[in-house]
Amino acid sequence: MENVEYEGGNKQRRVEKKAVSLLSDVAKRAPKLFGIPTGVEGLDDLFFTTKIEDGKVKKVPLGGIPSLAVVNITGVPDTGKSLMAEQFAVKQASMGYKVCFVTVESPAPFVSVGLRERARAMGIEWESIEDNIVMIDAATHSSIREDVNNLLNTMDYAIHYYGTKSVVIDSITGLYEAREMMARSIVRKLFNFMKKNYQTAIFVSQKRSGHEELTAEAAGGYAISHIVDCSIVVSKELIMSRFQASMYKMPIGSILRLMRIDGCRMCGHDTKTHVLEISETGLVRIGPTLQEFIKSRESQQ
């Protein structure tokens, strides 16, 4: 820090001059914005940027989540969060990019089974990707799971030794179990780390069943959604009443899964609620908007 004397005053105050820049200078250091394919059918089309053409603003599909964004996927259990994270890792690995996968909930060997199944369902040869995914087993090693600084050091080693371009953490909620007062501090450190190391990141976070289904709030309160670049909220509705059956045009006992992009500060995005489907082979697909889905069901009856 440097001492600066304000004009017309005798008092000197310490300021961080390096933190002050003209926008024109900052913009020169800004990374290029482009889409990072997620491997989730229908999701990549929901992000876009804009351009001016003939004096009019035109939307241009980004073709994926924004590059170098930190994206939080949040929802209650059995809504496809981990499947989406695994599809992202497999897709990026299949494109020849190294991915750092931090598993917090389940030991790495068990996660590898899921990744293998996701690769098969996506039609991707396992042998072509297995050396492109770097596993960090925080589920087995409590020293990583319970000490965020140790986790950051371990990820720093993996990123620079293997040259990864993206990071998946499933789930960040497990990093502040029983100490949710620290959630904001932990998430902020992870966010800053991803930015410093130029990593596109997927954070999976768990919602309590008592939270509103289609909000970004997860365990740890609002710590996550206020910090990350983008929040994707997934939910499910169990059709158990005549009212629900009539509203969604589905039989009682059915499950309807939904997805909404709750916000993305780095680019434009679709704001509608979409139907989310999980195939028999365990692949997540983003379908039509809920309004379109209901209209389609009505026309079939």
Please provide a written account of the structure:
The chain is 28% helix and 28% strand. It has helices spanning 23-28, 81-94, 108-121, 142-145, 148-162, 183-196, 242-248, 290-300; strands at 2-5, 12-15, 35-36, 47-53, 56-61, 65-66, 70-75, 99-103, 133-137, 166-170, 200-206, 230-238, 255-264, 268-269, 274-278, 284-289. The strands form four sheets. Strands 9-8-10-11-7-12-13-15-16 form a nine-stranded mixed sheet, sandwiched between helices. The longest helix has 15 residues, at 148-162. The relative contact order is 0.15. The mean pLDDT is 90.
- Radius of gyration equals 22 Å
Estimated share of beta-strand residues: 25-35%
CATH level 1 class label of the domain at 32-232: Alpha Beta
**Based on helices, strands and strand pairing, what is the structural class?**
alpha/beta
The main sheet comes to: 9 strands, mixed
Helical percentage:
25-40%
- The CATH superfamily of the domain at 32-232 is known as P-loop containing nucleotide triphosphate hydrolases
For the termini, the CA-CA separation is: 70 Å
- Kindly report the spatial arrangement of strands forming the biggest sheet: 9-8-10-11-7-12-13-15-16
Mean pLDDT: 90
* SSE run: EEHEEEEEHEHEHHEHEEHEEEEH
Unreliable residue runs = none
Structure described in brief:
28% of the residues lie in helices and 28% in strands. With 301 residues, it is an alpha/beta fold. Helix 2 crosses helix 3.
